[in-house]
Design goal:
CATH topology of the largest domain: Purple Acid Phosphatase, chain A, domain 2
Distance between the termini: 15 Å
Largest sheet: 6 strands, mixed
Number of domains: 2
Number of helices: 15
Structural class: alpha/beta
Strand content: 15-25%
Helix content: 25-40%
Bound molecules: zinc ion
CATH architecture of the largest domain: 4-Layer Sandwich
Radius of gyration: 24 Å
């Protein structure tokens, strides 16, 4: 049973356009889509009843992740607008492209759709200092009495597009609007905070609230951005912080007591799995009419975009985080095989040796054994960077020196240990010192590469873009079409590509049974899972610096180590 309380909140965060869920072939345990989540919400709403208090929130980062992310996000937004969210927060991924900001901001756009419930407490337009959405809202419960003051904060993001200013959270909580908001009438406070569940800024916000209104009003933080499941009940005596995974692997549920009762918080992590959601909602069949209609819309949109078209058949699963020596490392495949055999390396003088630099934040998910669709390529490589030619005839020793400097700077930016280099070079071997090379680079971080290379060469390098047709994904797709043709489906069964159970599953196995653990449901097994989970998280945190970095493309989101805790374990 869901741990229902006075005030209840269903949470999705960091879905990054995975609204269709995960591939039913590759990850059948994560088969829920936004239609399933909408159905779940409707069932829970019905069971809590019209006079109960249920809210539904989205905590930011709807962009970047699958083929449904386009610039501007014209295909994704109509899908998101079917979700009956009570409040929506902005994520950093909504602030990397002007076209996205424009889609949100324009009259009748995404922000307007939510009628004052799109919250951007510390994100404002650079031109006017007006918030893109609203600074805060007061949500009203179904009981006609309960009111929840709700904010939407973003961490101190440093690299948003120039048309937007992300005000420092430390400054925002000193603003007049923030003090006025706290003078509203309410029973509890919900802080949507697009930041890690233990980000020091959580305490900054909490302290500002406490110094204004004292310690008795319950404060629930809905956190995110680091893509883990996490819960922290040590923020203070009457508040907790709750983070609900990523890529629709988790639907979160939190409940809290109202103002005049003792501070009680409960929570549950529900797998992004149809059976888990059905069981949590305690119904015989999950799909509602609205949920089914949304599933149909998502599939129809994917079809229109050609995302379900088959590109080829992968002979094995490749991981985007394995080191370059591993046979199942996608980076090894990319640097050793895909790039050297690509159109880029056949450009210009065929006799010249070529080298390509690319940032290793480019790939974000594993590529699974068997059928590969266009969407699988987009999931693997959501940024699809174009390429630049930097210069011709560069000595190998200059390239090596520049590469080492770029790697060092990237390492600093990524601020996380990982088994792949912080910058990638193709071919992935030290260039011969006295040979000369034509040098290319991916678009992301090109300014820095140009600066360092110019410095090494002693003259200004002028990069030349190779055109939109030549991009990371076009290289990958060309390679697959050339080398990974699917055996004919009309052939006999021997060669028919079989949907395979991936041997590298970044997510937890779900045995088909809804697994919800919440306060009060502990058994020795759950405790064991909880301890295991805590040990994994604690072990990881030991080696990971918690310093936040600006560009999430490099940030801790990328770390495979953080994926492991995505299980049903909870420490309540
Ligand atoms: Zn995210
Ligand atoms: Zn984020």
């Amino acid at each position: 049973m869901l741990p229902v309380g006075d005030i209840n909140v269903i949470v999705v965060t960091d879905v990054h356009s995975w609204v269709s869920g995960h591939s039913p072939i590759h990850e059948p345990s994560l088969d829920a889509d936004y239609g399933s989540v909408l159905s779940f919400y409707e069932h829970v709403r019905d069971s809590i009843g019209g006079d109960g208090n249920l809210f539904f929130v989205m905590n930011g980062d709807f962009m970047d992740g699958t083929g449904l992310t386009t610039n501007p996000p014209d295909f994704l937004l109509p899908i998101l607008e079917h979700m009956p969210w009570s409040a929506v927060n902005i994520g950093n991924h909504e602030l990397y492209a002007n076209s996205t900001v424009q889609s949100i901001r324009k009259p009748g756009g995404f922000s307007d759709w939510w009628g004052g419930r799109y919250l951007t407490s510390n994100v404002v337009l650079a031109s006017s200092d007006d918030p893109i959405g609203s600074r805060y809202t007061v949500m009203h419960g179904g009981d006609g009495q309960t009111k929840v003051l709700t904010f939407g904060f973003l961490y101190d993001m440093a690299d948003a597009v120039a048309t937007v200013t992300v005000q420092r959270v430390e400054d925002a909580v000193k603003s007049k609007w923030f003090r006025s908001a706290l003078k509203e009438e309410y029973d509890a406070i919900l802080v949507l905070a697009h930041m890690d569940h233990q980000d020091p800024l959580v305490q900054v916000i909490l302290k500002a609230i406490r110094s204004a209104i004292g310690h008795t009003v319950p404060v629930q933080f809905i956190t995110g951005h680091t893509h883990i499941r996490a819960y922290d009940n040590a923020t203070d005596a009457c508040s907790t912080s709750f983070e609900a995974g990523r890529y629709l692997d988790t639907v979160g549920f939190v409940s809290m007591s109202g103002k005049n009762s003792s501070c009680k918080f409960k929570h549950a992590f529900i797998d992004g799995n149809v059976e888990a959601l059905r069981s949590a909602a305690n119904v015989d069949k999950l799909d509602t009419d609205n949920g089914q209609a949304l599933t149909d819309l998502i599939k129809e949109t994917q079809g229109r975009l050609g995302l379900l078209d088959i590109v080829g058949c992968s002979p094995q699963t490749f991981s985007y985080v394995y080191d370059l020596n591993a046979t199942d490392s996608f980076w090894r495949l990319y640097l050793d095989e895909i790039v050297p055999n690509s159109t880029i390396f056949s450009l210009g003088n065929a006799t010249h040796k070529k080298i390509l630099f690319q940032d290793t934040g480019a790939f974000r998910y594993d590529l699974f054994n068997g059928t590969v669709t266009m969407n699988d390529v987009d999931i693997l490589s959501p940024f699809d960077d174009t390429f630049y030619q930097l210069s011709s005839g560069i000595p190998g020793h200059v390239i090596q020196s520049a590469y080492e400097r770029i790697s060092e700077e990237m390492k600093f930016m990524m601020n996380v240990e990982q088994p792949i280099p912080s910058a990638a070079m193709s071919p992935p071997r030290r260039p011969a010192a006295n040979d000369t090379y034509d040098l290319y680079a991916g678009k992301f971080g090109i300014e820095n590469v140009v600066k360092i290379l110019s410095d090494e060469l002693g003259f200004d390098v002028r990069p030349m873009e190779l055109g939109n047709d030549l991009s990371t994904n076009s290289l990958i797709i060309d390679y697959m079409k050339e080398n990974w043709a699917c055996p004919s489906l009309v052939d006999d069964n021997h060669d028919t590509p079989k949907p395979s159970i991936p041997h590298h599953m970044p997510h937890v196995d779900v045995s088909g049974v809804a697994k919800i653990i919440s306060n009060g449901l502990s058994t020795p097994v759950w405790i064991g899972l909880g301890v295991l989970y805590f040990a994994v998280v604690a072990g990881f945190l030991l080696f990971r610096s918690r310093k936040r970095v600006g560009r999430e493309r490099f940030a801790s989101e990328n770390s495979q180590a953080e994926l492991e805790p995505v299980s049903d374990a909870v420490f309540a």
